[in-house]
Amino acid sequence: MLHRVGGGSVLECFADLPDPRDPRGTRHSLPTIMGLCLAGVLAGQKSLTEITDWVSAADQELLAALDCRRGADDRCTPPHPDTIERVLGMLGAQGLADHTGDYLGHRAGLGSVRFPIDGPVLLPAIAVDGKAMRGAIGPDGLMPYLLAAATHGESVVIAERLVGAKTNEVPEFAPLLRDLGVPVSGCVFTMDAGHTVRAHAGFLAEELFAHYVMTVKQNQKGLFDRLNALDWTSVPISHTTIDKGHGRHEKRTIQVTDAPDDLGFPHCSQVFLIERYTTRTVRKRRKNSRKYKTVKVKTAVAALGITSLSSREAAPHHLAAYVRGHWAIENKIHWVRDVTFREDASQIKTAARPRVMATLRNLAIGLLRQAGHTKIAATIRKIHNDPRLLFTILGLRRCPENVA
Length: 404
Hints:
The protein is of the alpha+beta class. Helix content is 35%, strand content 21%. The protein folds into two domains: 11-92 and 351-402, no CATH class; 108-339, Transposase Inhibitor Protein From Tn5, Chain A, domain 1 (Alpha-Beta Complex), CATH 3.90.350. The protein has a nine-stranded mixed β-sheet with strand order 3-2-1-4-5-9-8-7-6, sandwiched between helices. The radius of gyration is 24 Å and the shape is globular.
């Protein structure tokens, strides 16, 4: 059982993490080592070598704030790079992911929703999605795959689980959410069409007492055909949004109706159709010429969906928000790990280290977003130039007298 943690110093996140080392001769605590590694990630260090070099050069104030060992001259001594690499290789990667997810989930204020609710309202929502670790190699020689759960809005990862080599995301869905460290009854779970299966709907509604919003595609052909055959022309458009910017004009509409009695999908209350019309202004080179011309490219996409939320619990604009909010896990977490932290180009390929580094990046992104920083790359540059910001994000108290 994990110790349930709240806010405060980031050292709390690692306080109950089992230390894999023999306690004899241990000079730096596990929370100190992990806190320094996390600080290195927040300061923009991308590889393990960069992190250990950064830790070796950390100033006395940060070392003291993270409880580093003091030498005979009363100066704080950072852990040796070999110690850091050995500890990260010995750590239980899933245990670390569980502790950090638990920590971020409590900081996010997740909890059960009080029922009955007075009327349609936007409920706390959690997205479930997978990501391949292209820079890593598993024990079987294959590329590891991680399934994660992240909050909508702030987009912080509250759970992550390794998908086995001989399986896929679907069997790992329930174990991932069953081990969440925060109560989620009444929350809304969103997922891509690969997870639109009856077992997931039953698990969410009957075991977690939560709701789902699912998209339906041809992988569930019978369900898709029944929804597609509905007379959508007689269902009015309930909500419309228009977005403009960067040469792009997008119009999104949603039509919602009660689920047919014979739909045959567990706990489904409403079904919906979302249509997206996009006009992009692009430059194309003229044929056999160096000159460019400006053209408008129009696309139209339709998506069918189902939800356990009744019309009393969710209005059409709430359903549209859940569907759109789901993709934050791709844009605000996976994309940031790949582009800002260059995860796919990582040279850390084997053992537990790739997963440990992924968890540290998730934790760094979560702490930055919970501190109100939405531009991750820009904030990391600020930290690099002004280390004082690091203390605020990590919840550490500054002690200037420790600077020598």
